[in-house]
Design goal:
7-stranded mixed beta sheet; alpha+beta
């Protein structure tokens, strides 16, 4: 295996070219970046840490890992209605990784920065004997007073989601060879949903531009667990109609055969769809970009699921917990 370059050579070779698009980065030659938000906007800041074989598979292609590192943070900006600005990346590479691995990681990261209009402003690079890890801090901008928040839901609101749910958790299962007989095209779709999340930036921009009372967050740790976060922030309860939960054709082909896979749909993480609560009229105004899956109640802290038989049961708090 080829030896890896030193820290400063590695940054100059692989990451400094990515930073040339924005003068705020100072070509990665200084101690920090310098930037100003657009007039009339507030800054939204988020940080996520991803560890090999916890949040991504170390065997995956480094360019795909890089894109996931960026996209999960962009999803947090989307959850707040913010437009991405710049990012700061800290990386801890396992000492056995080659320069070629880092090169492919940087290539994928640069491609996605360009695709999403994001600037690399800086970061840090270290070598570790432990698992490879990344910590990315993303900065976004939202018109003053229009940030989407979790604490805005009220009883009588309806609950909606973008896209489809359960694909990423089922995609991870496909990658682990749990569904060997699944149609190849359906399997590829689910794998892609796990490996390459799609932050709902366009949809969040519509929500922020509406300038109405909407509660929102991204579904990263599973629908069941993330619903409880809205309940806790807004001091409300939620009820979900299982039949209303949107499924892709690929996910439906699995749960129709094996009902137990609904657990992955309800509790699996990594969907990175938006979960939105608001008045019936405000949610209706969002049109086809969302699907209504339930409503907001005054039963504080309770998340209930209405099953196919019409019976209601409390949904277990089984979302992904990083400390379990």
């Amino acid at each position: 295996m080829a030896a890896r370059s030193g820290e400063f050579e590695l940054i100059a070779r692989h990451f400094a070219p990515i930073a040339q698009s924005d003068p705020a980065a100072l070509s990665l030659k200084d101690d920090a970046a310098v930037f100003s938000p657009p007039a009339g906007h507030e800054v939204v800041v988020t940080t996520d840490a991803l560890v090999a074989d916890v949040h991504f598979r170390s065997i995956d292609d480094p360019d795909l890992i890089a894109k996931k590192v960026l996209r999960v943070n962009l999803s947090d900006l989307a959850a707040m209605g913010a437009k991405p600005g710049g990012v700061v990346l800290s990386a801890g590479y396992n000492r056995d990784l080659s320069d070629e691995w880092v090169e492919q990681f940087a290539k994928g990261f640069g491609q996605d920065c360009k695709s999403f209009g994001v600037s690399l402003w800086g970061g840090d690079t270290v070598v570790t004997p432990g698992p490879t890890f990344f910590s990315l801090t993303a900065f976004g901008y939202v018109p003053a007073g229009r940030a989407l928040r979790r604490d805005m839901a009220k009883p009588g609101d309806v609950l909606a989601v973008t896209g489809t749910l359960g694909d990423a958790a089922l995609g991870q299962a496909v990658l682990n060879d749990e569904f060997p007989d699944l149609d190849k095209d359906l399997a590829a779709y689910l794998q892609d949903r796990y490996l390459l999340p799609k932050p709902r930036l366009d949809e969040s921009a519509v929500c922020a531009a509406a300038n109405t009372r909407l509660a929102a967050m991204d579904v990263s740790d599973g629908l069941a667990g993330d619903c409880r976060k809205i309940c806790a922030a807004s001091n409300v309860g939620l009820v979900i109609n299982r039949d209303a939960i949107p499924l892709s054709d690929a996910a439906k082909s699995i749960v129709d055969v094996d009902e137990s896979q609904w657990e992955r749909v309800l509790a699996g993480g990594d969907d990175y769809e938006l979960l939105i609560a608001g008045s019936p009229d405000d949610i209706a105004a969002l049109g086809d970009m969302v699907t209504v899956i339930g409503g907001v109640t005054d039963e504080v802290g309770t998340v209930s699921l209405v099953g196919v038989d019409g019976k209601t049961a409390e949904l277990a708090d089984s979302g992904f917990d990083h400390f379990k």
